[in-house]
Structures are given as structure tokens and as C-alpha cells.
Structure of Cell division protein ZapE:
Amino acid sequence: MAQLEHLSARMPSVTVDELLKGFYPSARFGSVSFASYRPDPAQPSQTTAVRAMERFAESINIPEPKGLRKLFAAKKPAVRSGFYLDGGFGVGKTHLLASLWHASEGPKAFGTFVEYTNLVGALSFRKTVEALSSYKLVCIDEFELDDPGDTVLMSRLMRELADAGVKLAATSNTLPGSLGEGRFAAVDFQREIQVLADQFEVVRIDGEDYRHRGLPTPPQPLSNSDLNAVIKAEFAEKTVALDDFKTLVNHLSAVHPSRYRQLLDGIDAVVWRDVETISEQSVALRFVVLADRLYDRDVPILASGVPFDSLFTPEMMAGGYLKKYYRAVSRLTALVREGQKQEAS
């Protein structure tokens, strides 16, 4: 018999050390390396990016001279604080960023842009700076600036970390000087955006952006009776989180997004009854974070209600956060296919 739990009943309590220990690549990128990256021979920029990140890793691992050696050491050539990997979806940016993390000596941190902003929300700005200033490397995946507050926040954080000698590396599909365009009046915050751009040497990775093909069609949702049958048949020896979708969505507002990783501890699969379209932006953005953490852990999903391509309103899918929503739908669809594959096996 499956062990049933409810995410909507969980209130994880996380210490600062536990939060920071969660900043590492997900299992999908847990053992990648520069050697395991396969550049497309038709896209020479991919090989160039690999070589650039290998050199960056080497620079991070050079020990700092101490004592008299430091006093008489030759002055290091002026370099920027980090690298910014720019390119479309599916060209291997996260693979390379995780490879950099694996190849670099610690202490070090790897997280998504949203996870860092959530960390600041959980700890405060000053405590986040204090915690990360002793790190050799901070990696920021899926770098986004969705509103003026995040623009100012991240520009200050990157500037202070760079001043403390921390090396930075980021991925995105938007050049750093163009962050925020189409989402808010970026011209009003050009100075802050430029501070961010000045921290990085941009490395472009070309290649086919597979998500330009459009969203995949999700499997048809199951009925609630089918959900119960599948839980009994396919998850007999596993821990399953079973929740009414509306109850879960309401509960997420009471749990800080920085704790969503711990919210899923010990969960082998999630089952959602009566999924419905989310119509509030704040609720939708919280759910995007949950989708990312589920995808990180490759947790299969079973669901009844509306299909996942109807999870967000048409206005949301065409608005300023469309990249986030497209990513979430794509990832949730992959996980529900995984869940239904187990059902069919």
C-alpha cells in the first residue's frame, strides 16, 4: 500500500545552513562535466563556450598567494567577475553551468535566479550577502529580471559579491543589457541593469531553440477514480503526495518559495485532484517555482481536471512572464507523461 501524504499539510522549517546546502545542481545535472557536453559541429560557438568555461574554472581554482608571496606576487590581469552564457533553450547552458560548478573548488553555490531572490526574502539582503561573500563561485541559472524590485535587488547583490571577490556565472536567453525589456519600463532602470551587465563577459551559445516548436500537447487528465486506482496499482511501495489542487494552491501562499525544495522531501510522486486554471498572477508565479522544484527532482505527476496547457490563462501565456509559464507547462507536461508512463507499464 502506498504511503499517502499531503503537501498541503506540510510546513517545512529550514535553517540558514539547510537553505544554503540546497544550492547545488539538480539530479539531472548531478554528474555532468565539460567532457560530457557534446558541441554541435555546425555551431562553433558551442565549442568556444566550453573552452571559455574551462578557463574560467581554472582561474577559480588558482590558490590565492599568502604572506610574502601575496606581497610580491605579480598583479593579476584585470578580468570581469564572471561569465554570462547567452542562448536559446536547449543549447546546453545549464549543462555548462553545472559543469563549471562541478569543476570548481568550494565553497560554491548553484541555484536558479528565483531561488536567489527567494533566499534574500527568507534571510534578508544583508545576511544573504554575508553568507555568500565567503564563496569562491556563485552560479545563477535562468537569470531573469521580471520587475524593478528584482532589478535593484540583484544588481546590488551581484555588485557586493563581486566586490568581495566572488566569481559569478549566469545563464539566460536574454543579453544582460536587455534584461527586463518587455516586462516593465526598463529604461527607468537602465543604470541598475548596466551594473549587472558590467559584471559579466558575455559568451554566446548558438543552436536550435527546441522550444520554438511550441508547447507539447499534454496527456489527457485522468478521472478521480482512475487516480485512486493508479495509486494502488503503481505506487504500492512509494510515498505519494495526494492533494486537492485548490487546497494545495492556497497552501503554497503560506510556505515561502525558498522552502519548496524541502516541501518535497521524501516524495516519490504527486497526485492532484481537480486541477483548474490559475487566474491570479501571484499564485501562478508561486506555482512556477513548485513546478521547477518538481522537475529538479524528476517527480512524476498524476492529475485530474484541466490539462496542463490550460493551467495558466491565455493572457498570462502572452504576457510579460510568458517564458516562465511556457517553461512550467513544458516541465509539468514531461512529469505527467512520466506519471502516466508508469500507469501504462
Summary: The longest strand covers residues 269-275. The chain has a mean pLDDT of 84. The radius of gyration is 21 Å.
